[in-house]
Design a protein that fits this description.
Ferritin, mainly alpha, 188 residues, elongated
Length: 188
């Protein structure tokens, strides 16, 4: 239930941004490169936080993998932009996904234990769903440079894989919560 609300919130936050971006003439390769760079940075931050704060080894490993992979992808994107002569446009502080990231980091930083794990995984599912939607419906149709487009297309399966892994880990976390509640009720 909480995941559905988060997904709807992510869609509500992302939809106006990407719909506006699609209609605006400024969604060019530089703007997309800037958003792509920032989005990788946001997942580096959340992944790093999970690798330090999670109580579950599998969630720590997932967070570490996200941070590592997104650092590599971010650098590859920067290298490609430099080679293409594209200067990534900075993302405004009031950009809805930037605002959402700051709120997520604040919330996650305040949580501990299973509550952190669940909130982190819910965030990753919703975040990757929003990224997949933006890449598919806004960025790929708008990218002019063939090499940049291929780069983003080649990465799309990884976005899906990250979302699926977060969903899998979230199911395990929820299952563990339910089992824990059942054990507590059985003892009373």
């Amino acid at each position: 239930m909480h995941l559905t609300r988060l997904a709807l919130l992510a869609a509500a936050v992302a939809a106006p941004t990407f719909a506006h971006a699609q209609a605006a003439p400024r969604v060019d390769d530089a703007a997309i490169a800037g958003i792509f760079d920032a989005a990788n940075g946001w997942d580096i931050a959340t992944g790093s936080l999970a690798s330090k704060n999670s109580t579950r080894a599998d969630v720590r490993e997932f967070g570490d993998m996200l941070a590592t992979v997104h650092k590599s992808v971010q650098q590859s994107g920067r290298d490609l932009a430099k080679r293409l002569g594209v200067t990534p446009a900075p993302v405004a502080k009031d950009f809805p996904l930037a605002v959402a990231h700051e709120a997520a980091m604040k919330k996650l930083s305040a949580l501990k234990g299973p509550a952190f794990d669940k909130a982190f995984l819910e965030h990753e599912v919703a975040y990757h769903a929003a990224v997949i939607d933006a890449v598919t419906n806004t960025f790929l149709p708008a990218i002019k440079n063939a090499e940049l487009k291929k780069f983003v297309q080649d990465l799309a399966p990884a976005f899906v894989a990250h979302k699926l892994k977060a969903e899998e880990l979230l199911k395990e976390a929820v299952k563990g919560e339910v089992q824990g509640e059942s054990e507590v009720k059985g003892r009373s």
